[in-house]
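FIELD: query
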Amino acid sequence: MTPQPNPQVGAAVKAADRAHVFHSWSAQELIDPLAVAGAEGSYFWDYEGKRYLDFTSGLVFTNIGYQHPKVVAAIQEQAATLSTFAPAFAVEARSEAARLIAERTPGDLDKIFFTNGGAEAVENATRMAKLHTGRPKVLSAYRSYHGATSAAINLTGDPRRWPNDSGAAGVVHFWAPFLYRSPFHSESERQESERALQHLEDTIVFEGPGTIAALILETIPGTAGIMTPPPGYLAGVRALCDRYGIVFILDEVMAGFGRTGKWFAADHYGVTPDLMTFAKGVNSGYVPLGGVAISGAIAETFARRPYPGGLTYSGHPLACAAAVATINVMEEEGIVDQAALIGSTVIGPGLRELASRHPSIGEVRGTGVFWALELVKNRETREPLVPYNAAGADNAAMAAFGAAAKAGGLWPFINMNRTHVVPPCNITEGEAKEGLAVLDEALGVADEYVV
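FIELD: result
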């Protein structure tokens, strides 16, 4: 699709947005949202006709890119057949989506509870765990994000929690492994894994194992930095949960459905949780959908005991039809394998080559189409390019980097001192190289802030 400039319409869209739309995570008078005219594949464009290669996949959800014709057609067909129906009924799109998801989840995660998104999935997963165990507490990691609803934001371990924190009893944070900025003074991945597990067990023991219902982890943390866990860590967490009777929840909202080069990131580590949350890539974000995949043991808890939770739009037919079409497209087009291949042969090597030339890059980490560049002022001290949770003048270096990327036609994912490389899973080799070339230019701007 060729973008057709239409500045007059763009101005009207922008004016209506500024007059009436209240944006999330923003000081309303300090933002300047781009008016988007259209999107296709790995690109979107504005009303001036400028195209951007999307290295954010929306908010890391367009795993098959924008406007895939088979998914669009499936939504249209479902709308013509049965556009909506209450969740208490058996509906073909809902049943088929659940079946396809359950076929791909690890272990016996064969029951699917549908939600409208990831935060609601986390809310319901933790509720299930508490009811299953009869215990009140949930453990979660610092450097994490689990959503913006009440329980999910309290479980979150980044600054977005602070203004929302209710000091809710029952949420306990701990340090997960991150060798580059190790809280355990580790010198190797093995040390980091062992020390993080010892810290976690100490936390469990001092909190009281009999009070802890669940432990929730992003399999690979997303917004917090794409820190792939060291070998043995997730297996060790699974063992601790088994030892103390704790429900193990893996949050795959961002990492799931092909992003890491596997259907789920858990598949890289051979670990099966008791509950798994998902959203985003399940239908490429075309219609809001999330859910919880539930193990047999927890499902049995509610076999004759009502589960006290539900949503008006749980398993919405349009969303489920989009999920069915998305999963089938991913199979037919080999998109999961494509994500693994493009990550191992183009993005990973390309980012490491950039790191060899740009002193602002402290570390490259990731897998599949799920990567992060840790940007620093000084490689020796590892001082972040901007301070933690920087804003305004303190964030000048990352703002300049981001502006340079956008000027070059690349829309970057920026969080604190990092830029994430998270394009659609079916991005082509040529598109990936195009994005890396723009990153190369933008990193030259970041280099100017190195000391």
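FIELD: remark
DSSP finds 13 helices and 16 strands in the chain.
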